[in-house]
Amino acid sequence: MRAPVISSAKGSSSGHDAEAARDFPFTAEDFSRIRTLIYREAGISLSDQKRDMVYNRLARRLRGTGIRTFSEYLDGLERSQDPQEWEAFTNALTTNLTAFFRESHHFPILSQHIAALSQPASVWCCASSTGEEPYSIAMTLAELGAKQSGARVVASDIDTQALAAASEGVYPADGVKNIPNAQLQRFFLRGTGSRAGRVRVNDALRAMVSFEHVNLISPPWPAIQRAAPFDVIFCRNVMIYFDKPTQAKILESFAPLLKPGGLLFAGHSENFSYMTNAFRLRGQTVYERVAEGAGAGKSADRSAASAAGRLVGSLG
After folding, report:
1. Average pLDDT estimate for 147-153
2. pLDDT tens digits along 24-56
3. Residue 96: pLDDT band by 50, 70, 90 thresholds?
4. Within this chain, do residues 248 and 160 fall inside the same structural domain, yes or no?
5. What is d(CA 9, CA 31) in angstroms, rounded to the nearest whole number?
6. How far apart are CA 55 and CA 25, in angstroms?
7. For residues 2 and 20, what is the distance between their CA atoms, to the nearest angstrom?
């Protein structure tokens, strides 16, 4: 999930030109309805600057359905309550920007934390997108040797199309060009014939990862609860799409799913220091789950963590 690059027309003349060039009328009321619906369904908070992005994404859906206006499409969406169309609506408005070993400073911390465990690790990647992040986590665990042979990664996302791509595990060769050759040879197969120029995650790595459809604003999550408690949760570059109350609600739901001392990884521009006492800052956008009852005696630690969180937030 997810960092859209947004452009918007500025100035009255360019704005009128953009409107005139559109295939469908798109009113302020249409945009307001869409903002309300996607917030209700997925917790995504759309700013005014994302109007062009919303139009472009959903205009494809209108063309695909043959509907001629946004108001007609939204009326039908709300009236029918068709789960497949709601899924298509949500998929259209989520953004999948990811890469293997993105924010690479997190992976040595992950490796060190897991290496100290006495049992195979359990990790939840709660915004897996098209799979690069959970497979990066799985590679990190696999390289720790036989002690982690039973390690597992649960990868989830709200976007069903992204999950399907992640489960397939096939990527353009350019997408793995920054992965060291030793890892490429160990974990990937090169495509031939019609799949030349592509690579596929091998069966051993694929077996470490399971994929689940999860809406983060709608706990409880039965599949996630069955796999809990986790040693690590990755929730990177997701919270930026939610408002503060929604972020706090999600963090509250995470806490009982993570073992005391377990780690929560956040994105480079995300700061959770002020939202909950269940986690304390341990490193750059890395948080540690505080043991139950430990918070009262560690107010000084929390103050230091909050100060560090403010610094990380300002640098991010």
Report:
1. 95
2. 999 999 999 999 999 999 999 999 999 999 999
3. confident
4. yes
5. 15
6. 10
7. 30
Nearest CA-CA partner of 106 in 235, 204, 254: 235
pLDDT at 159 over 70: yes
Tokens of 111: 């490796």
Yes or no: say if 145 and 138 are a contact pair by the CB < 8 Å rule.
no
Q: What pLDDT digit, counting tens, does each position of 160-190 carry?
A: 999 999 999 999 999 999 999 999 999 999 9
Q: Please state the pTM of the whole predicted model.
A: 0.81
Active-site residue among 33, 61, 157, 280? 157
Domain of residue 34 covers: 12-93
Establish if 59 belongs to a structural domain: yes
Cite the beta strand spans of 56-138 per DSSP E. Answer: 122-125
Torsions phi, psi for 176 (to 5 deg): -115, 15
Distances (CA, A) of 277 to 132, 289, 292, 299: 31, 9, 10, 10
Q: Give the C-alpha separation, 234 to 265, whole Å.
A: 5
Active site residue 157: yes
Q: What CATH number corresponds to the domain at position 123?
A: 3.40.50.150
CATH number for the domain spanning 54: value is 1.10.155.10
Q: Active-site residue 57, yes or no?
A: yes
Residue 294: both structure tokens together: 């430990």
Q: Can you tell me the distance from the alpha carbon of 255 to that of 105, in angstroms, rounded to the nearest whole number?
A: 23
* Domain identity same for 45 and 113: no
Helix/strand/coil (H, E, C) string of 10-56?
CCHHHHHHHHHHCCCCCCHHHHHHHHHHHHHHHCCCCCHHHHHHHHH
Query: What value does the mean pLDDT take over residues 273-287?
Result: 89
Strands, sheet with 198-201, edge to edge from the N-terminal-most edge strand? 170-172, 198-201, 188-190
Residue that is last in its domain, among 55, 71, 93: 93
Q: Which of 57, 198, 236, 280 is catalytic?
A: 57
263: left (phi over 0), alpha (psi -120 to 50) or beta: beta
